[in-house]
Write a structure and sequence with these properties.
One of its GO terms (cellular component) is mitochondrial matrix. With 707 residues, the chain is α/β, with parallel strands linked by helices. Strand 16 (543-546), helix 21 (558-565) and strand 17 (570-573) form a beta-alpha-beta unit. Bound molecules: 1,4-dihydronicotinamide adenine dinucleotide, pyruvic acid and magnesium ion.
Length: 707
């Protein structure tokens, strides 16, 4: 389906007039939901931004089909043309600004409104609108949301009081981009041969400095170089950054709530400068990757996750909010560190802890009731409890439990295909999960549900769960309620020569699993013996997922997995590894089995659907969408997930799948001018287009000052 808005400025003069033609090609036409609200063309009308420096002008649509808007959903092509004459005394109002102005024209809307009862959704995603800024002069240069550095056009410098505050030459966005990439490449060259941690931190610093100075340029370089930069702003380097956060700290980012703020959060939340927030990532720093309790230093994780939201899901960076809830730390080293920036006291527990999380959630909901809240890196005992407590009340999810599960399930289904077996054979797969924490249990729960759906009976799959005390059976006392559904009966394990607490090697030898999944946080636990035992797997294509992060905590390296378990394995890891050159000269493909393939789409889908809850059905839709993304040919090469280079495309598909699931569960309340009816009428392709239209892309918008 073509759903396009073409705006062409026919002639541009320094003064008057302008002739502008707008062509809607097979635009989608919906009956208007709220008749008194007028009509919109594309998303842009949605924003109630007004540009004080423009007057509205007559804009007459012609060639409108006579019967437009009569049925529920139609396509139409028509043109609008006008000659505009007014005072364009600034010459920097070039194409993009005009286009946006045209689409926002009140007169267009008014003309359409008079003629018929409909609204028109047209693709306007590539059209940057003017951005209202409430500050002037040096304040703008110091605000990374608006700063363009040397990229401010001269007339904008005039309007915003920037003249004289910048060197006179105007540098284009492209030149700024090239300049940054050149510095980055020289840094790579200059740090060659230095220890990995030094190089990684140097890379992080240069990116972080840009992030702090000019967000538009930062996200442009991030999006265009996501494969190279994701390992710097996300795992593994983000782990190193969190470990060294107190020393690296220069400027705050996000919000910090602490146990000292009890009773104040409802007012504190209004200290955040943005009026709108779409995505919140919240941590209490208690289990940062596989690095344990890092207290306030864990703020790096919400920042990194939200960078991925901007890069992959096109969430507007002015509408994201990383939050650290500092309730103390049990990390003795940090407590004794005089430079530690968090509360130097033991973690709150029990009722005291939960009441403070309650208070923060209420405050967030009060100010931004439509925001999606992602819980990240909470220790096991609070991860499940907070998920249960809030998921029926707020639009939230736990990424470690649910996001990871979706990605892992997509990978597990891929491994069935890699064995050239039908997906329904998933019910017979033998899977050993090492790590019975938030992530491991989340994966098992989703895998059980998938088996249940496939077999149509109460599932009793061949899944085995191991924690630090070995194989978990029903004989074990004090098993956490979240783990007990996955504890094997003692009879069942004895029948294959195992017992309560059997160790990993023994389990692998006796079970001969099709898949070995590591979510233990223990680096190297898949040692040579364990990997060699996987050679006797019952699968022709054994799969090994060393999903723990960061790299040092991975259960094994990619090279070791291929070396010891064999060239025919399928391999995935939470943090990136290079593909492995095999003895045959072929390449052993390394999949990045990381929840980054899903959480951006889950958040985006929930947001644009206007759902007020995130259900298991929406999670399942996300996972299924990811699983179906890969072709049989790719699967045969051991590829289970798409390249990170196409993460924006994947996220749009995942977001749309989540949206459609929300619609089918009657949860989609719509967003802005696009209501539940419009959402319900969308085809699969239209839902993907709609999600894409809602994605932000980094371009310099013309800045318009408003007091
Ligand atoms: N790749 C991805 O997308 C994701 C990876 N993870 C990673 O998974 C790891 C675990 O995360 P959570 O489940 O949240 O942690 P958790 O602390 O809730 O659970 C860790 C589990 O590992 C078990 N364990 C510890 N030592 C063990 C040993 N020697 N042998 C067997 N089991 C052992 C513990 O008993 C516990 O059940 C972390 O490293 C994290 O980075 C988590 C979420 C997503
Ligand atoms: C990837 C992630 O969420 C974790 O390792 O915790
Ligand atoms: Mg996590």
């Amino acid at each position: 389906m073509i759903n396009q808005l073409n705006v062409r400025m026919i002639e541009e003069f320094r003064y008057l007039p302008y002739e502008i033609e707008v062509t809607f090609e097979r635009a989608h036409v919906f009956p208007t939901r709220q008749k008194d609200k007028g009509y919109h063309i594309g998303q842009s009308i949605n924003h109630s931004l007004t540009c004080p420096e423009f007057d509205s002008f007559p804009f007459v649509p012609h060639s409108l089909p006579a019967n437009l808007g009569q049925s529920s959903l139609e396509q139409a092509s028509f043109n609008c043309k006008t000659t505009v004459g007014y005072r364009p005394i600034r010459t920097d109002y070039h194409g993009d600004m005009w286009r946006k102005t045209v689409t926002r024209s009140a007169a267009v809307v008014e003309n359409l409104r008079k003629s018929r009862s409909f609204s028109i959704a047209a693709s306007t995603s590539s059209i940057p609108g003017p951005c209202i800024v409430h500050k002037r002069g040096a304040d703008i240069l110091h605000d990374p949301w608006f700063n363009k550095d040397t990229g401010f056009p001269l007339t904008e410098r005039d309007r915003l009081g920037l003249r004289g505050l910048l060197p006179p030459r105007v540098i284009s966005f492209e030149q700024q981009y090239d300049r940054f990439m050149e510095s980055y490449r020289s840094l790579e060259k200059n740090t060659e041969g230095q220890p990995d941690s030094v190089v990684s931190l140097a890379k992080w610093r240069i990116l972080n400095r840009l992030h702090d100075r000019n967000e538009t340029l930062y996200y442009k370089v991030l999006i265009d170089n996501i494969k190279d930069f994701a390992p710097v702003i996300y795992t593994p380097t983000v782990g190193l950054v969190c470990q060294n956060y107190s020393g690296l700290f220069r400027r705050p980012r996000g919000m910090y709530f602490s146990a000292k703020d009890r009773g104040e959060m409802m007012s504190m939340i209004y200290n955040w400068p943005a009026h709108e927030v779409d995505m919140v990532v919240l941590t209490d720093g208690s289990r940062i990757l596989g690095l344990g309790d890092l207290g306030v230093q864990g703020i790096g994780i919400p920042i990194g996750k939200l960078d991925m939201y901007v890069a992959a899901a096109g969430i507007n960076p002015q509408r994201v909010l990383p939050i650290m809830l500092d309730v103390g730390t049990n990390n003795q080293k940090l407590l004794e560190d005089p430079l530690y920036l968090g509360l130097r006291e033991q973690r709150l527990e029990g009722e005291e802890y939960i009441s403070i999380v309650d208070e923060l959630m209420e405050a967030l909901h009060a100010r931004w009731p439509k925001a999606v809240i992602q819980f990240e890196d909470f220790q096991f005992k609070w991860a499940f409890e907070t998920l249960q407590r809030y998921r029926k009340k707020f639009c939230m999810f736990n990424d470690d439990i649910q996001g990871t599960a979706g990605v892992a399930l997509a990978g597990l289904l891929g491994t069935v295909r890699a064995q050239s077996r039908p997906l329904s054979d998933f019910v017979d797969q033998k899977i050993v999960v090492v790590g019975a924490g938030s992530a491991g249990l989340g994966v098992l729960k989703m895998a059980y549900e998938a088996v249940g759906r496939m077999s149509g009976t109460t599932p009793n799959p061949q899944f085995f769960l191991i924690d630090k005390d070995g194989l978990i059976t029903k004989e074990r006392s004090g098993v956490d309620p979240a783990a007990s559904p996955f504890a094997k009966s003692i009879g069942e394990v004895q029948s294959i020569g195992l017992q309560e607490g059997s160790d990993l090697l023994e389990v692998v030898k006796k079970v001969k699993p099709h898949v070995l999944v590591g979510l233990s946080g223990v680096g190297g636990i898949f040692n040579e013996q364990v990997l060699k035992a996987m050679r006797d797997s019952d699968s022709p294509r054994p799969a090994i997922f060393a999903m723990s992060n960061p790299t040092n905590n991975a259960e094994c390296t990619a090279a070791d997995a291929f070396k010891h378990a064999g060239d025919n394995i399928v391999f995935g890891s939470g943090s990136p590894f290079q593909n492995v050159v095999l003895g045959s000269g072929k390449s052993g493909h390394v999949n990045q089995a990381n929840n980054m393939y899903l959480f951006p789409g889950i958040g985006l889908g929930a947001l644009v659907s206007g759902a007020h809850l995130i259900t298991d059905g929406m999670m399942h839709a996300a996972s299924t969408c990811l699983a179906s993304y890969i072709t049989d040919e790719e699967i045969q090469q051991g590829i289970l997930y798409p390249s990170i280079n196409s993460i924006r495309k994947i996220t749009a598909e995942v977001g749309a799948a989540v949206l459609r699931a929300a619609v089918s569960e009657d949860l989609a309340e719509g967003r802005g001018e696009v209501g539940p009816k419009e959402l319900a009428h969308m085809s699969k392709e239209e839902s993907v287009e709609y999600v894409k239209r809602n994605m932000w892309y980094p371009v310099y918008s013309p800045l318009v000052h408003e007091k």
